[in-house]
Amino acid sequence: MLFFFTIIILFYSCIYLKQFPYYCSSEMRLLSLFLLKDLSFLAIPFSLYYLPLKMAFKNKCISSKVSNFAINGENRVNSPSGSCNIAQMCLLDLPDLVLECILERLPPDGLCSMSSVCSSMRERCVSDHLWKKHMKQKWGKVIGPAAYREWQWHIVCKNESSFFNQAKEKGLLNYLANLFPVSLVRLGCNNDGSNSMAMKTKNYPPVDSVMSWYLALESGKFWFPAQVYNRENGHVGFILSCYDAELCYELKTDTFQARYPPHGRRAVPIETGVTWDRVRSAPIDTSPYDLHTSDCLNELRPGDHIEIQWRRNKEFPYGWWYGIVGHLESCDGNETYCLCPESDMVALEFNQYAPGSRWRRTIISRKYHKEEGNEADGFYAGIRKLHGGGEISTWKHLFPAAVLE
C-alpha cells in the first residue's frame, strides 16, 4: 500500500511538475525523497534507528567538556584496579551555583562562545539576567525609554516578517502534511515537530531577549533614539546644546553615527564619529517638537543650572540648551538683599555668548510661561532644573574655551 502510494506521487510529480509554481515544484521533489527515506525507515528496527542518535548525543556531551575546567590530559591518576585513566571534569557537572558564578564573570564575547558548546549551556548563556548587567554597563547611559520602545517595535516587525517567511517556506509541503497527518510524511519537519525555519534559527538567541538587543546594538544594525551634545561636530551654532537624533554604533571606531531630524527644507544632517561623551539618553520622554511642561519655575533661584528648549523657528525641532539662572536688572546681586526668588520674572543667562550678544540673556515668566520668542531671536520653551552633579559637570566639560560672539 505504501509502495503504491509512493509510485503514484512520483508518477504525478513527473507529469505535472511544470504546472506547479517554482516553490511547489521543488517541494514535490522533496516529497518523493522523504517517502523513499521513510520506506527504508520501516525496514529498520526501531531500536537500531535511534542508535545513531544516542551515539551522536554521547559525542556531543563529550565535546562539551571545556579544557579550562579539565585536569591536564598528561596528568594521570591510578584507578582502584591499577590502570591509568585521564581525569576530566565536564563543565555541566559543576554545581549550579558555581556554574552561575562563572558565567556571571564572563564578558559578552565569552558568553557568546559558551552558548555554542551545547544546548544546555546555550539556555544558560542567553538568560536575560546575565545580559542585563552587560547592557547596563555599556549602554545604560545612552539607552532610555524611547530606545526601549523602538526596540519593542523592532521585535514586532521582525516577528511579523518571520511569520510570513515561514508561511512561504512551508507552502505545499505543509499542506500535504495536514492532508496526510502520518509519521511517514514528515515533510521538512524534525522529530519534535519543529519546521526547518526553527532549525535554521536554533543557534540564535530569542528575538525578544536582552542578548539579542545587546548584539543588535553592538553590530550597528539597530538605530535607536538618543541625544547628542554639540551636534554636527561642534558647529558654532550648536555649542552647549543637546539635540535628539537616531544613532547606530560603529564597532571598529567605537563611535556613533547620528541622523538628526530635518530642519525645514534642509536635508537630513548625518554626523559620523560621535564619541561616547557626547551621547546621552533623553532625560525627559517627550518629542523634540512638543513643548515640555515646566514644573520647576517656582523653585528657580539665581545660580541654579537649567536646560531650556529652544528652536530657531516653528519648523525646527527643539534642542536643549544649557544656562544659569541670573539676577534681574533691579537686583544688585547681593545675596543678602536679593529678591529675585520672589519675583514673577526669571532671568536666564547663557554665558557661552559674549556680553551684549542677543543670545546672552532672556527673561521668562514664572506663572504664564509658554513658548516665547520671535523669528529673529528664536523661540524659548520648556525648562528643566538640573539637580545631579553629573549633568552639570558634563556641561562644564563642554564649555567652550572662548566666548562666542
UniProtKB/TrEMBL annotation:
SUPFAM superfamilies: F-box domain (SSF81383). The chain crosses the membrane at residues 33-51. Keywords: Membrane, Transmembrane, Transmembrane helix. It comes from the Eukaryota. Pfam families: F-box. Residues 88-134 form the F-box domain. InterPro entries: F-box-like_dom_sf, F-box_dom. This is F-box domain-containing protein.
